[in-house]
Inverse folding.
């Protein structure tokens, strides 16, 4: 669906973006990955499929999401900031774009069940939602620590008819939820699609999820033109696995805009990582000197991941995109600032991107610049956590 | 044909069903004694599990054992050092995830295996398509690259995989991660498709939990791999003598 | 802005809709009500104001919200149900439409502060949001019982820079929050606008709020035409004060559609009320034999109000709209049904309308009918409460 | 000119500043004795607050008193019955919210007031614009309709209001609900605008909490209304004798 791009083109036939990507999965899963690639290529070239995907995004998920000029923040910072409002998409984040595509694909492949991993629960809720709509059965794997931190999201998934399985292995967070989903997938790959939540995992997931998220960037580019802004100087997005960033970058990869991804300092695969293989992909990973994967630690469950999607590793290596990290300490202030100045409470994940913009306005971001912030999700899910932090309880 | 495969073909040639126990290296300080006990009890070769933080193809037992071993400080280097005290020359095959070798450096890792007496390696998350570099590194060191065959592997892929697997073909009895099961699942069918395109020894693994299951699996293949069931008793405190009698019971069932 | 309508026209010069409405306020507030009426008439006739109002609704609040065909529910019930998705509007309900209009009007009147009442917190959050956007200071009155039941919404308002005042008088719920907001307004009417949250209160509020919500009905009518559905047989909305209902009804008042408002059985001003005067208006109220106002009791804080907007009293009396009540016991089932079949967790308020549709499909709603459900808000705010109920803790 | 206004004009004619205490009817079982004590101590007229569930123009003191009275079962009928035992003929003025009369029936309510010896009514949430029916009902019964004048009332509205208010003009000292304040606020300005268009007696109320404030308010008007400060001592347990000395202290300040 995306036009041919110099900087964000399709991966090669092995699923590589430059030196990263590929398909590092157990043989048991190889047929499913190959089948998925064929099915995706076929669907993505089918105007009827695209039409349904876009119709559901419009009539069900509320696309296009608007681009909001953030006037008061802009005035405060001396730059012009615009926000692409993925927080307004159904279920509260960009995650819905991807799951609508993947659940339609699931049905098209004749499968009746989806499984998914989730950290904070956003991707889990989105998957449960899209599955409910199509009457697919749905199981979501969630680290036990996260099921406790985000118990309301667990209940939301259950209300939507999904089964939530607490993952007791490893650090009991997102990384382990992926492991467990992979383990489950091996046992049921015949009738079950693994609905991965970010631009990670084995080929074709990183590419497919980017394509399904690229609607963010395509819309935003058109909307900025309509607003008379044209090409922004910077496009800024937070990066966990990297799906919202990849989605918005895709609309600007061949423009003059600087592409900036913001990681959590405690989950900074570009900043602190090195090449490695995990969860089916070769990418940048936080790992110790022996190649054991390190546990990420971030205030935001959605960025609490030691890796990054392989296309981002490639964009970093090729220099097309820049990646910076923001520590927990700056995140709450940024969340408060956006809330108070603009009436938008962002997700903690998104607040990392806000924090970077606030911090770098006038330094890495020259005064007067035009900045597109991808506002990947709303903060409702985080309000209890933020309150506890501000009250010194967490 | 290189060392490991020659050894295993010789075993089959001798009419013996191979018994291959799996150990998590470093799980206990005396883990090498466990390996020796197993060989004493009739194991023909041993899988040396190198613990990884994210064992995506393993069930709870091996997950837990890996974690314990990592917490005890096990590394590729440390377990190779441990192996220096091993008193037998039975074939050893490493099993771990690709990142361990990738991070160590592929050639360096293959060399390390060889110098530690390890003649092959199973890397469950290394697909055929991604295995080129690793196979070249192993080739140079006479380390066999063992591939897995799953019930979902179609005949076309089986042909491709039998073309590259060395030492033996690892036939997964079922679509599942490691763990203890109640039957031998699809073992027969998987072994048959392997045999349709290759005469390499085919061993059945994944879920073989009892001597009876081992016998059934061996009846349709050239040998069995016993993992979680063994690791479980060690996790529960078994010492070398229990390991010995555990393996002996499997040996009896196979002979 | 609405075309002249036979059934939902402007009130007369005293602010009456038939026998209801008017302006029953202390003399101290009369000048403010008169000033507000003038300012509203002036603004609402000013194309520049309308343009800004519509632009903010589009670029900030995410309008138009889609109309979603509810295919699986429709199949289950044997009718065709479409949902107008106010749950996708910024802050999660239709309340934002009204507060964007009123805060723009506040600025236009040269006032620098808004106050508001809130029940569950939706209107409070919306007001705090719209105020933040314009840099207006904001105080929200909320019954103490509700501040405890909805403590996260209190914190959301605080994050948005608003001050939340717990109301200790009376039943400590919505009715008392209105009283307290009125008391406060008397003291600061010079520089403060009272941003009322529903089609209630003294003239011009019921009319103004309906006008500011009528965008729901205008959009929906156009969207149903675009979908090829045309005029629905029924338009169904839940009714607390009645703003989402009035907003959607406004688009269909002069059509052949039956207009149906659903009250909570424990807050049923049409079903159990009689004419009376409260909060500045003459309307239908739940009251005892001595004219003391009764406390409403509903599972949903937003319908926990003993009155109804005067225009609804008029629509009920004139027979143009029908009103029914749904008891707490049917609400949870309806919420679960919509969640499981359609992937949309509705607000408890909205779930009343869903419950009525489910209950009456095939009886009061003839099989094969086309029904437009106004999906007034999302259920995220209610998830903790629903969980407690289902676990038998509440 | 009807009864109440004639009485109050006569008072002014006699050079006396009017002292009008406010009681919440039914707050205590012996509330009528409190009324008598106040009159004994020099009150010239009495406001009889009829409790309403939602006293939108009242501060916490009168809210609380209203609630207590309602919980004790007070109704319009019950308090009128209570008033039958009142031993004086001082002018009485009801104060309540419109819904009470609206629900009772306007004509029936006005008749009830009259037969109970209440000569006027203050209805703070009944705006001039909505007052037509009520004024007609009262007219028939010789019940004066007393209107409030706020600091926010512009001269044009003052003219309209003085045209309809009967008995007296209630001048709000401030933009606030009932309660105790620290000064007389805008009392002088409000009274002056009233006097600019009418010679009806103008009394100052809202926040008059001490004899000193009462004196200051009376200095610029024809009398004062004392509400929350009085209700507060009754809420706190004052009996008839404390009410008497409380009112006496205001009387002394006014004379
Ligand atoms: C709102 C929001 N933003 C960002 C992320 C990070 O994911 P990704 O990097 O794939 O966009 C998440 C993940 O949960 C999220 O919920
Ligand atoms: C989602 C939702 N729907 C409906 C209502 C009821 O208000 P109204 O009748 O004014 O639409 C509320 C009030 O809080 C609400 O939050």
């Amino acid at each position: 669906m995306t036009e041919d791009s110099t900087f964000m083109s399709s991966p090669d036939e092995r699923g590589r973006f430059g030196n990263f990507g590929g398909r590092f999965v157990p043989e048991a899963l190889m047929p499913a990955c190959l089948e998925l690639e064929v099915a995706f290529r076929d669907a993505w070239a089918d105007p009827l499929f695209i039409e349904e995907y876009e119709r559901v995004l419009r009539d069900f998920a509320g696309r296009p999401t608007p681009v909001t000029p953030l006037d008061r923040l802009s005035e405060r910072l001396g730059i012009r900031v615009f926000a692409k409002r993925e927080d307004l998409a159904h279920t509260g984040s960009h995650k819905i774009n991807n799951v609508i595509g993947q659940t339609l694909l699931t049905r098209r492949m004749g499968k009746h069940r989806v499984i998914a991993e989730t950290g904070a629960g956003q991707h889990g809720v989105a998957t449960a939602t899209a599955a409910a709509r199509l009457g697919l059965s749905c199981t979501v794997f969630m680290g036990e620590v996260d099921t406790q931190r985000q118990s309301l999201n667990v209940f939301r998934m259950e209300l939507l008819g999904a089964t939530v399985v607490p993952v007791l292995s490893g650090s009991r967070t997102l990384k382990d939820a992926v492991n467990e989903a992979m383990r489950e997938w091996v046992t049921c790959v015949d009738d079950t699609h693994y609905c991965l939540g970010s631009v990670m995992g084995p080929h074709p997931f990183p590419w497919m999820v980017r394509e399904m998220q690229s609607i963010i960037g395509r819309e935003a580019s058109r909307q900025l033109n309509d607003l008379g802004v044209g090409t922004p100087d910077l496009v800024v997005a937070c990066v966990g696995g990297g799906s919202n960033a990849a989605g918005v970058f895709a609309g600007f990869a061949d423009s003059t805009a600087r592409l900036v991804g913001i990681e959590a300092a405690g989950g900074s695969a570009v900043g602190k990582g090195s090449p490695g293989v995990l969860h089916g992909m070769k990418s940048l990973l936080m790992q110790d000197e022996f190649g054991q994967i390190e546990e990420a630690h971030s205030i935001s469950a959605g960025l609490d991941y030691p890796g990054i999607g392989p296309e981002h590793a490639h964009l970093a290596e090729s220099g097309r995109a820049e990646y910076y990290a923001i520590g927990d300490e700056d995140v709450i202030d940024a969340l408060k600032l956006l809330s108070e100045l603009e009436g938008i409470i962002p997700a903690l994940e998104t607040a990392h991107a806000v924090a970077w913009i606030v911090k770098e306005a006038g330094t890495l971001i020259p005064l007067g610049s035009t900045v597109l912030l991808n506002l990947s999700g709303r903060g409702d899910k985080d309000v209890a956590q933020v309150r506890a932090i501000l009250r010194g309880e967490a | 044909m290189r060392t490991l495969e020659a050894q295993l073909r010789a075993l089959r040639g001798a009419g013996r069903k191979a018994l291959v126990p799996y150990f998590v290296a470093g799980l206990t300080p005396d883990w090498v004694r466990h390996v020796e006990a197993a060989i004493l009890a009739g194991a023909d070769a041993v899988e040396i599990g190198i613990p990884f933080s994210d064992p995506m193809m393993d069930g709870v037992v091996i997950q837990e054992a890996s974690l314990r071993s990592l917490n005890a400080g096990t590394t590729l280097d440390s377990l190779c050092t441990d192996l220096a005290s091993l008193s037998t020359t039975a074939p050893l095959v490493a099993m771990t995830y690709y990142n361990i070798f990738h991070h160590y450096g592929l050639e360096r890792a293959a060399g390390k295996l060889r110098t530690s007496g390890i003649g092959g390696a199973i890397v469950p998350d290394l697909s055929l398509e991604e295995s080129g570099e690793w196979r070249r590194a192993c080739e140079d060191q006479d380390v066999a690259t063992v591939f897995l065959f799953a019930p979902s592997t179609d005949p076309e892929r089986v042909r491709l995989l039998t073309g590259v697997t060395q030492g033996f073909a690892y036939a997964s009895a079922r679509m599942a991660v490691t763990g203890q099961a109640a039957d031998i699942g699809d073992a027969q069918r998987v072994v048959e498709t392997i045999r349709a395109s290759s005469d390499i020894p085919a061993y059945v693994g994944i879920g073989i939990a009892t001597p009876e299951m081992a016998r059934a699996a061996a009846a349709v293949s050239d040998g069995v791999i016993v993992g979680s069931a063994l690791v479980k008793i060690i996790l529960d405190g078994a010492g070398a003598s229990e390991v010995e009698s555990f393996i002996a019971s499997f040996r009896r069932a196979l002979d």
Observations:
- Residues A 93, 119-120, 122-123, 198, 238-245, 302-303, 347, 349-350, 376-377 surround pyridoxal-5'-phosphate (ligand 1) (CB under 6 Å).
- The longest strand of chain A covers residues 137-143.
- Residues 16-57+95-209 of chain A form a domain with the Rossmann fold fold (CATH 3.40.50.1100).
